[in-house]
User: Fold BTB domain-containing protein from Salix udensis.
Amino acid sequence: MDRRTISTRKSSKRKLEQDSEPENQDRHKIPATDTAASYESHQKLTRDIQTQVDILNSSFSSLEADRAAAKRATSVLSQFAKTEDLVDTMVDCGAVPALVMHLQAPPPTRGENGPKLYEHEVERGSALALGLLAVKPEHQQLIVDAGALTHLVELLKRHKNADNSRAVNGAVRKAADAITNLAHENSGIKTRVRIEGAISYLVELLEHADTKVQRAAAGALRTLAFKNDENKNQIVECNALPTLVMMLRSEDTAIHYEAVGVIGNLVHSSPHIKKAVLLAGALQPVIGLLSSPCSESQREAALLLGQFAAADSDCKVHIVQRGAVKPLIDMLESSDVQLKEMAAFALGRLAQETHNQAGIAHNGGIVPLLRLLDSKSGPLQHNAAFTLYGLVDNEDNVADLIKVGGFQKLQDGEFIIQQTKDCVAKTMRRLEEKIHGRVLNHLLYLMRVAERNIQRRVALALAYLCAPDDRKVVFIDKNGLDLLLGLLESGSVKLQCDGSVALYRLATKASSVFPVDAAPLSPTSQVYLGEQYVNNPTLSDVTFLVEGKRFYAHRICLLASSDAFRAMFDGGYRERNAKDVEIPNIRWDVFELMMRFIYTGSVEINIDLAQDLLRAADQYLLDGLKRLCECTIAQDISVENVSLMYELSEGFNAMSLRESCILFILKQFDKLCTKPWYVVFSMHLSIL
Assistant:
């Protein structure tokens, strides 16, 4: 992963800076408060840099004065290189070729025997300065083109021909660090390093007596192995794996951090190397690093275990058997986001194996994974979601996840990337597939005997997850509906909202299974005379007086339309023999629409007339027209008028409209729960 090279780059620069000579730091330190300008003018600093470069260019000899001058100049330039604003100025002043020249010892003077003055120290200073300049990617190729790699590789060899002295070790270490920074995210330079023969010497240095040299060599190999298959293969061919595995067991955090980083880059996208690493015995020491005091080592170990787990099912099982689960779960509680991300990554791979799923849940993995769904980090969210997807494949985990509120967490989560949303959707479908048999029985048991909050969580989940054939058992026989209705009276707005949405979901699912007809059949055969007879005096045998105007009608059509008209014209009412019947409480346009429906069986209803027409249809027992009016009114329900619409449905026993109002209120709970009438409504609904 890219973050590995980023952290390597940062750690390399830190090592280069921290290992500088203390006295030089004091003498040439550049204040960081306001770049170089706060210390002295940029022009003055440029002159100082140029002076040191000129000294290097004129002092490449074995003379004592020249060696001393070169040592001082490389030290000063190293200090300047730590200030990022001065790096470009140093390059412009010709520091690169001057420093590259001093990576090698000058030619001996005539008659010179024995060690040179400041042997290894000038080279060390040059390697340190070049390594700092190479932190800026735009200067990497310039340094290589100036011939630095050949000399740096030669410096790596010095441990063979010299005592284990501080000077030699310093030069070797700084050469390895410089190679690390030069090759960082530069595939061409990584290849050049291999061609120059550096890899075999770096592998040898892993066994050096000086732990700082070991660390520097491992850091270089780590960078060289990243996304470079040829380098990976050569590192393995040079027999680096046994030494790296031993370094994993080191108590020195810096050593095992670099070692696990090298191995991580070696196995990435390289199945054959992954197999070789496991055969070399890396698994147990990597698991041991999960408990390292170094969080970076923990992170790399977790990432590496995730990569191992992708190899095969047996490896997944072995990782769990060897004790990785508990420390990985503990890491989920860390304050380090990247550490949590890598732990979730490893657990996600392990959770795709059936035998591991129950173990992860049993060790307490579900709750911290659910908490990670609230993270603002997209990758962390996704790794947690992927792990949960694996866990719910095991029936034994389903009730445990629902019991702690996992379903609501998955349902309500705000997920950052689309992959996570897709993963959560698959998890929900997988949960739905599991709600039967012993899983359902377990949930019903919890709904009966568990604490109240757990009962509610189960009822909420089952409102979405249980199969249609099980709804009667869950919500009627086992009182699941009472639990949901009880949420409407909860003191928690969140629980009220959850209950409302669940009831809405349950009601809409029931409606889809048992659809209600728009207009039920009349108990008697319906006779429609047709549009041409609406308010037509032809063959008319009864006249209605509406708002002082006559409306011509036909008894046979009215008698067939409803019980109200049959009672009016075929019963003991005075209208039976009357030729003119007065209609005192209905407007003309409403009455005309009602009669048009009676004559044709259909009518277009304007929303402005729908409520008055509903009253008329209810008065004259025209159920079909009443349902059409309810349907029209339901289309106009809003947050502002839903309470009035509900009262209207109650007043005229308009069951379809009432159902629409209830569903609307449940669906729009967040907007309606603050309305003064909502408390009364929720109590009324609970009673119902």
